[in-house]
């Protein structure tokens, strides 16, 4: 067996192994965020997403799809819906992508309704960013669709400014745990 044959076979084996690590089918394309439609319901709580304020989310899984529609799973709240769904299904080999509203990329508003402030919702595809890349304000006075929620920002300075104005602390995606979601 020649050296060239051994090197070629080794290279092919390495490429095959790497493809398996990236997703098993050799296609490492990450699905894009979509615009959430006016009649799309949250896949956890069933509320119509665009009828409510606050951050939204989407997730794609390799072998897990919603019952009522094509992927992605859609969420009207992060703390109460997206993160519990994520923790329930978090086999990282299956997760393809998770997106959340990026409040650094939109012209958001915080308005008073009743006795609490609420942050605006932005269901357009371009308002979403990869969830792992954002900073989250947790424990602020600002509400989303189902009460207190996590407010994500791609610019850490924006997250710090939001926390300074509305309270809360800034954490990374990896800092969000089931215990943090439950408090």
3D structure, described in words:
It comes from Haloarchaeobius litoreus. InterPro entries: N2O_reductase_NosL, TAT_signal. With about 180 residues, this protein is of the alpha+beta class. The protein has helices at about 5-20, 80-90, 155-165, 180, and strands at about 55-60, 75, 95-100, 110-115, 115-120, 130, 135-140, 145, 145-150, 150-155, 170. The strands form four sheets. A four-stranded antiparallel beta sheet has the order 2-1-3-6. It has a three-stranded antiparallel beta sheet with strand order 10-7-11, with helices on one face. Strands 4-5 form a two-stranded antiparallel sheet. A hairpin with a 2-residue loop joins strand 4 (about 110-115) and strand 5. It is globular, with a radius of gyration of 19 Å. The protein starts with a helix and ends with a helix.
